[in-house]
Records
---
Amino acid sequence: MKEELLSYIDERIAWHKGEQSRLKAEYRQDEAAHVQIAINVYNIFRSTYQAMKFDLAETLKRFSGIVSTWEENHKRACEHGDEEKRLIEEIKIARATEILRRAKEMEAMS
Amino acid sequence: MTETQALMLFKCLADRSRLQILKSLAQEDMYVERLAERLGLTPPTISFHLKKLADAGAVKSYKTQYYTMYALEKSVFMTSILELIQEKSDDAELQKQRDEAYRKKVIDTFFEYGKLKSIPTQKKKERIVLEELAKAFEPGKEYTEREVNIILADYNDDFCTLRRDMIGEKLLARDHQIYWRTDKQK
């Protein structure tokens, strides 16, 4: 399962890199930078997973802890009307939610 | 528009999505969701771009009963690029001070006790030296070649080169052996 999940993460990184190139070619630098944020989230998960010596339960616990920090940041950005920060945190939370959902689906299937 | 404002605006416009937003707003005022639908972007992304555009002074917003509407700040786009580059630079004064300091340094280096020690080989420095020499000629007064030579010889023995270079730099004008100072010096 670990290989399947890592392979899924790699596919998502590859897809986002393609999207990032497309946006850059269209002179949409800020959106390309936002895609980089998504790529970073995948990489954070990947690194955490590897650091945890492939223990998925521990990885998910640690990763959820990181995500809760992002949720706090998002809440604060909303309170202060900080559109840029809000969008960045939303991107991070959306990608993290996707990874957690996918990991749980795989765990349930295994 | 100040130089900083212009920089912010140009940086903001160098993005296709923001340009598309402006094109839409040029047609009519719109709210975030409508722009998102029109441009195929998410509402948070549209809000992000609108914030950038608002910070650059390109769009303004106003509230209606249900929505916050966004409109083009037309006055910003009335300013032509030519007007912008012709505007006095924010650091023009600083540049002027630097130029004056450089000028003083060149004059101090090449003049000693009112004499020109040598003719600078560097064009920029020579121009400064020649401009300084041009001050010895009264504006509007005509001089014979002999008078010009005498004045210049007071500064340096190579008065022929100085005279020729001053003509070349258009600091002095000449017609039938009669010379006069032009208004091209600083």
Note: The interface with chain A takes residues 14-17, 41, 44-45, 47-52 of chain B (CB under 8 Å).
---
Amino acid sequence: MPALILFWILAIVCIGAALTMVTAANPVRSALSLVVCFLALAVYYVTLSAQFIGAVQVVVYAGAVMVLFLFVIMLLNLGAPVTSSTKGSNQNTAAVALGAILLLVLFISGIFFEIPGKAVSPATAQAQGTVKAVGLTLYNPHLPWLFPFEATSLLLLVAVVGAIVMTRRQV
Amino acid sequence: MVPVSYYLSLSAVLFTIGVVGVLVKRNPIQVFMCIELMLNAANLTFIALGRFYGTSVGEMYVIFALAVAAAEVSVGLGIIVTIFRTRQSIDLDETALLKS
């Protein structure tokens, strides 16, 4: 029962922060709401016994990515909301209507989903979320994760070089 | 123990909020934030299903999704900065350079 109460508290925080992010006109306010949402998700990961992913979520998303966002907002001086002349209310209505349909479809597919078979014991799940278990799975040459991991390092290198090349001043 | 369908439904709500945000917002930075929210909703699904199936496959996918999201944010914000430098505006409706 305490797990269910925690779930609902976190769900309220998470969805409230997400709605604030979408409705806020000020980008800084959006970014800070998104940090709250990411932190709530990190707590979810810990309760789902994925402790390592929860820590990474705090460091990478709530830390690095959101700092990058705030830096760009400050760099471009976008603190004031963008007022657009061509902003149509028709598009907003259509977006909300289509979003409602999407929500209905996803909800129906999610709410009746059940895992067949026995439930996994908390002790087994707990052992799978530790740094040691994640590392052993990731670097195991008999499992298919090692090559994608190496490819990810190349991807990050390309992203770093690409970001520098695109944003440097033309000489 | 919270049933897995609760997590899937929460993930559906977050994903839909992200989709609607992408369609409604006019500031590309806020559109980017909505895309991040959608990625996180998908990550929550991976983690929840991995936990309830008792495998670590879900966590592996989330690690890769995190790395790709970090790369995507750096490149995307670089593009936004470049657009701002050339046009002094980043409004999504005015930025239509590729539209002939």
Note: The domain at 4-87 of chain B is CATH 1.10.287.3510 (Helix Hairpins).
